[in-house]
Design a protein that fits this description.
- With 460 residues, the chain is an alpha/beta fold.
- The chain has two domains: 165 residues, no CATH class; 285 residues, P-loop containing nucleotide triphosphate hydrolases (Rossmann fold).
- The protein contains 17 helices and twelve strands.
- The strands form three sheets. The protein has a six-stranded mixed sheet with strand order 8-9-10-5-11-12, with helices on both faces.
Length: 460
């Protein structure tokens, strides 16, 4: 079997495993591999990562991804690289075993090819990010991708003092930790108080912090716009507020803890997801009556439920179509019905995830005008929308979430709409989102700058 330019005896599976792990049985290529590891050791140290990680296969590539600010890509790359190793071994074993069907051997080779292609794609993303961090041209990626030429950039970048990263992994973490908001939002007897220290999950054998240090107090009667780029944590944030996914936090609605008294408070929070789960063959009235059974307390009788349903249909203009099938409703009517289902319980806090999705400008405007009326009745309305500027005049405040260099959702602004414009130096909300979005997502990559600045404002 030819591998890395040398012929390796394949008399037993152990030789295949050793060949794959060592990359080659050719001593010259082994020397180049050792030099590559030495170069990577220095590159890791320059970025504030322990150099000995370069000695461990797969960990080495994952740490390089962290240095390149491409940690999620690093996880996938490591998994695919491990897959290449496994399928290489299996392909070798099936190829040397006469008792194994040829189709099995061919399948192993196909799987190996597919996994290798995925590995190359993610490796290119990682080394492209490393070029950005080091301020070098993307042509370097070609050398990083091809063994044994990967030794060249590893040695140059590692040992040449002129090649320095624009930031270090540990420095960024330390800076973000320094600016962590130590204070707490004042608890409001009437309104929503959020003191979220951390929302995390375990991914790839390590803790991934999804949200950190989000503190705010939202008064009753306020309509709040929630903005942030892809992956900034908007959905995670609203799930933490409504108690669906609890965080390391204290969430109080009108002075009552949402987590410790969830069974009591769940009727006081309405959450409208982007996609509805309504049955098309049911009528509007039947749909709302079913929702009333689920959303209203058990001690509410049938007569009271019917009265509440009729009241909600009147509020959202659904009375004329109460006998129509859901599948026959227009897009705007269906959205209003979806919102009505959650409004049945008369919640104090109303959260909506893209309620204007799929609606034209006029219909979207009408929908948000109705939400404005709900807020004016003393409710708190929090809405996510990807087209904020067409309805921004209806909102009191805006929350801006941004993904920092550690890929953690942080609070870049909470306050008035006009205050956000002044803070970010941009007139349109979409321009603000673009400013905090990462460059590879079409943004300006200024998330860290604004997160740090806002943290300093909070510190006073």
């Amino acid at each position: 079997m030819n591998y890395a330019g040398s012929v390796v005896p394949m008399d037993n599976p152990l030789s295949i495993v050793l060949m794959v792990l060592l990359d080659s049985s050719n001593p010259w290529l082994a020397v180049l591999k050792a030099l590559y590891i030495a170069g990577v050791w220095k590159v890791l140290e320059k970025s504030g990562v322990k150099g000995w990680n370069a000695l461990i296969p797969w960990v080495r590539e994952y740490k390089l991804a962290c240095c390149a600010n491409r940690e999620p890509e690093g996880r996938i790359y490591c998994l695919t690289d491990f897959g290449v190793t496994v399928f290489s071994v299996l392909a070798g074993v099936t190829g040397m075993s006469s008792g194994i069907n040829g189709n099995t051997s061919n399948l192993m080779m196909v799987l190996l090819t597919v996994v290798m292609l995925v590995e190359i794609i993610y490796a290119a993303r990682i080394f492209s990010g490393l070029c950005e961090i080091y301020g070098r041209k993307k042509l370097w990626v070609l050398l990083w991708l091809v063994a044994p030429y990967e030794t060249i950039p590893a040695l140059i970048w590692g040992f040449n003092k002129e090649y320095q990263p624009s930031w270090k992994v540990e420095d960024i973490k330390a800076e973000m930790a320094r600016l962590a908001t130590s204070g707490r939002a004042a608890v409001m007897d009437e309104g929503l108080t959020v003191n979220l220290k951390e929302r995390s999950a375990w991914e790839f054998l390590h803790k991934k912090v999804l949200l950190r240090d989000i503190h705010m107090s939202i008064p009753q009667g306020h309509m709040v716009l929630l903005l942030g780029g892809s992956g900034a944590g908007k959905t995670t944030f609203v799930n933490a507020i409504n108690g669906y996914e609890q965080a390391k936090a204290e969430i109080l609605l009108n002075g009552t803890n949402m987590y410790t008294q969830y069974d009591k408070m769940k009727y006081d929070v309405g959450f409208v997801p982007q996609s509805d789960m309504m049955r098309g063959k049911d009528t509007v009235l039947a749909t709302l009556l079913d929702a009333a059974k689920l959303r209203l307390p058990k001690d509410v009788d049938a007569r009271q439920r019917r009265a509440r349903v009729e009241e909600v249909m009147e509020i959202f203009g659904l009375t004329p179509v109460q006998d129509h099938l859901v599948e026959k409703l227009s897009g705007g009517q269906r959205k209003r019905l979806s919102i009505s289902m959650e409004f049945i319980s008369n919640p104090s806090l109303f959260i909506l995830d893209e309620p204007d999705s799929g609606l034209d400008g006029v219909m979207a405007r009408e929908l948000f005008v109705q939400l404005r009326k709900i807020a004016d009745s003393g409710k708190i309305v929090i809405a996510i929308t990807h087209t904020p500027d067409r309805v921004i005049d209806l909102f009191d405040d805006v929350i801006i979430l941004a993904k920092d260099s550690a890929r953690t959702g942080r609070l870049a602004w909470y306050g008035s709409v006009e205050g956000a414009r002044q803070f970010f130096g941009r007139e349109r909300m979409e321009e603000i989102v673009k400013a905090v979005n990462r460059k590879e997502e079409g943004g300006e990559g200024l998330a860290d700058e604004f997160v740090m600045r806002y943290a300093e404002v909070q510190h006073g």
